[in-house]
Write a structure and sequence with these properties.
With 113 residues, this protein is α+β, with helices and mostly antiparallel strands. It contains one helix and eight strands; from the N terminus they run αββββββββ. It has an eight-stranded antiparallel beta barrel with strand order 1-2-3-4-5-6-7-8.
Amino acid sequence: MRKLLFTFLVVLCGTVISIAANVEGKWKSSGGEMEITYVFEMVDGALTGTIDTPMGGLPMSNLVVDGNKISFDLDVMGNVMKSSGTFDDTEMKITSTGGMSDGQESILTKVTD
């Protein structure tokens, strides 16, 4: 029984790391007046994210990846903006609600170095 439980946990952890690896990296917004870069990275075994703009960066909170779905929150000068969407290996589609970005849709392209 222990061996079966251990095997299950190893497969589960591998799946979570594999999902995070698909989103991990830099994603750039297409269009718009200002270049925005979304950065997802593994830090101490946890997926973290920031949004970088010419005016500075914002950390993401409540970042969740479930299969090809992603959601996160941003605190923009005291206003919480919620974002959610889907992604594949090269493109991410995000819809944001709250603040000045209510209903805004963004299409991001994964940056390949």
